Amino acid sequence: MKPSDLYKRFSKMNKSDSFITIKQTNYIPMKKIILLFTITVFFFTNTSAQQSSDDGILKVLAIGNSFSDDAVEHFLYDIAKAGNKKIIIGNMYIGGAPIVLHVKNATADKKAYSYRKINLDGEKNVTKNVSLAEAIGNENWDYISLQQASSFSGQYDVIMKDLPKLISYVQSLAPNAKLIYHQTWAYQQDSKHKGFANYNKDQTTMYKSIMDVTKRIDKSKAFAFIVPAGTSIQNARTSSIGDHFTRDGFHLQLTYGRFTVACAWYEKLFNEDVRQNPCQPEKISALEAKIAKEAAHKAVKKPFKVSKIKL
Questions:
Q1: Cβ pair 232, 296 in contact under 8 A
Q2: Max intra-chain CA distance, the chain
Q3: What is the torsional sign of CA 215, 219, 223, 226?
Q4: What's the whole-model pTM score?
Q5: Burial class (CB in 10 A: 0-12, 13-18, 19+), 173
Q6: What's the rounded Cα separation, in Å, for the pair 144 and 179?
Q7: H or E stretch at 124
Q8: Most buried among 75, 159, 236, 297, by the most CB within 10 A?
C-alpha cells in the first residue's frame, strides 16, 4: 500500500470509525524520504537474487519487544518444523518498546536493537546494535509484524498517533512484505505492572480494550491479518490451568504460556489447523499442549471474543 493510500484510508475511516486524522504535512520530511529511497534502492540491489526466487521458506520479522520475544522466539520454529514447514524468524528487540520509539529509531536510523534471528536450521543468533533498516534489508521477508507496548495496547489514540508512520516506513523498505499486527494479551488479574492502572487493574477491562483496538485496526485493511495472541491466552485462561499463563503477571509462562501464543502464530502464518500439528515440547504435558492448541485454534476462528476451553 502506498503511503498516500494509507493516509486516504485512515482519513476516510476517521469519519466513521473515529480514527485520528493524520495530516500528510506531518509525515516524514523530504530529506528523510530521499534517505529512505536511497536505502531501498541499496537493499533492492543487494537482495535481488533472493527476491526473484521462490525458495519455499516463510520468512517473518517481528518489530517489537519482550512480548514478541515470548511469541516467536521459543516455540514457533519447533511447531513449524513438526508441520514440515520451512521458516526463518527475526525479532527486533528492545524491552518495553512502544510504537513511538520504533518510529524515532527509524527516523534517526538508530542502531538500537538486539536482532534475534532463528535460521533455517533452528539456530538462533543474536546481533547487537542493529537498525531497523538493516534488519528489514537482511531478508526478503514475507511478513513483518508490528505491535504496541503492552501497557498501551488497549489505547487506540496512543497507538494511532504513530502507527501510520511506522507502517509507511516499513513499506518504503519492504514493499513486497505483508504487514501483520500482533495482538498482545491482557495481564494476569493479580499483576503488579504499573501499566495495569490504565485499565483499572482489571484483566477483563484490559482484554476488552485490546479487542476494541485490534478490531478497529483490522477494519483499516492496512494489515494482512491480526495474530490473535491476546485472545489465545484469554481462551486458555478458561481451561483447567486457569489464570496462570504469565510468569510475572505480564510476560508469558515459559512453557505452555509461550507455546499457546506460538500456536496462534503458526495457524495464522500457515493457515493450518494447529490441533493437527504433532509438536509437543518436552517440558509441556499432553494436556497443556492440547489446551494451548485448542485455545489458539479457537482464537483464530474468533479473534476478538473469548471461547471457553473445556479441558
A1: yes
A2: 57
A3: positive
A4: 0.83
A5: buried
A6: 5
A7: strand 124-130
A8: 236
